[in-house]
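Record type: ASSEMBLY
Status: queued
Input:
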Amino acid sequence: MRNVLAIAEKELSTYFGSPWSYIITAVFLVVGGYGFGFTAVTYMETTVQGFLGWSSFFLLFLGPAMTMRLFAEEEKLGTLEILLTSPVRDVEVVLGKFLASLGMLAVMLVLSLFYPLLLAWFGSPDLGPIASGYLGIFLLGAIFLSIGLFASSLTANQIVAYVVGSVLVLVLWFIGQTAGVLGEKAGAVFRAIAVSTHFPDFGRGMIDTNTILYYVSITVVFLFLTVRSLETRRWR
Amino acid sequence: MIEAANLTKYYGNHLAIENVSFKVEKGEVVGFLGPNGAGKTTTMRILTGFIPSSSGSARVAGYDVQTQSLEARRRIGYLPESVPLYRDMTVRSYLRFLAKIRGVPPTRREARIKEVMALCRIEGYADTHIGKLSKGYRQLVGVSQAILHEPEVLILDEPTIGIDPRQVVQIRQITKELGREHTVILSTHILPEVNMVCEKVIIMSRGKVVAVDRPQDISARLKGTQRYEIEARGPAKKLLARLRQVEGVRDVTAEGSGEQRRYTVECEPDRDVRDVLAAAVIESGLSLLGLKAHELDLEDIFLKLTAKERE
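Status: finished
Output:
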């Protein structure tokens, strides 16, 4: 655990030291804010549904971008050699890096709390759906980050990592749309697999333990795959 | 302290090292010598647990590097050849991070970082970003991270390559100092370096260990011939013929053209024929400009050993 935290701390400070993170955060807030403002003004709703919709979609592209560096760069610069010959387990390295990216996401989400605060200032929003919505987007973000981390562990090229990560994420998001083509039964299966199907429930204040379990398991599976990928890179 | 037994490594179909075996005792400073591509880095990477061997095994401080990797890694300090460092971190924060994951106790961490920086003489750059340091200082940061957790075994892959002479001396000195308490393996293809810092040489060529010995013993073992170099002015033909008649001379070659030439004379060992050679030059009517016995240095040994390998 000590190693996990040390690695997470190091990665977080790299995040905060890079202008890239500030740009990403700013764009995230702008895009989410646009969604928020749009629904708030157009439908006169005191919810964060608009924010959740827009920012969740934006996270599809953001997740792999936030994580593409984490392993690919170490592989390219060779710093992995010093890290992996230190007495740390592969799983500790993966968890440390994942935790850092999750921390970065948390920072972005905390900053976006500005929008619900606006609602509370000018109206009396229902806090339940806002809380569950935030839980949802955090869990969804965790999935995207774990997938991005996995993609980053496959290659020394950040661009390749980003593309692979994005493709995986988009497949997992849009796979439900294939239902129309594949017929009813297969369609139902794919709709259940797609993470997008379950996401709107969070915004409506519904917390389904199955969905949470499903989201967390996908994250765990990809973290596991990342550990495996790190192990196999020793054999390559 | 280090024991390698029949290490073999394939990268795909390419055989990188084959049946590499050697032993390094506690407190020894051992030089890994060989041309590029001889398998030095591969061997070191296996010892440090960065890559597994295809077959064979290795133990460091009694721990198998594959099955008890964490325990082995705790006892190894390693500086990879390319000196990979996080360029966006300062020296201090970098060492702090590594001290944590290498298990330096929190109470001792700051003191140890100071100690290491002082030893490597990089205190002045503690708060400089690593990316802004010159190659030589980065190398010193690399050495300082390797010794940070006071490892029993130190493995340095070409630690003095591509840096300025003053820092080369500094790194050699550090290595020597560390060698008093630590076991050190250091790879290099600079031969004098081995003579300076190592008590034992392991010579590798084409993935195999071709010789393990003390530097001076290796030269003794290979001293098949004694060589002399003569510089003389005058007609070459006459002298060549005359020199070949000297007792014990096996071969004479001349270099250069015109009046002044350099002659290499190969003789049987264990006999000093300098005076006879000098007399021969004078008797042939040439002027003797220089004469010296040639000590076989590591360079020659190395060429000989690897030439043998090729035959």
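Annotation: The interface with chain A takes residues 45, 48-52, 70-71, 73-74, 76, 78, 80, 82, 84-89, 93, 97-98, 100-103, 145 of chain B (CB under 8 Å).
Annotation: Chain B has eleven helices and 14 strands.
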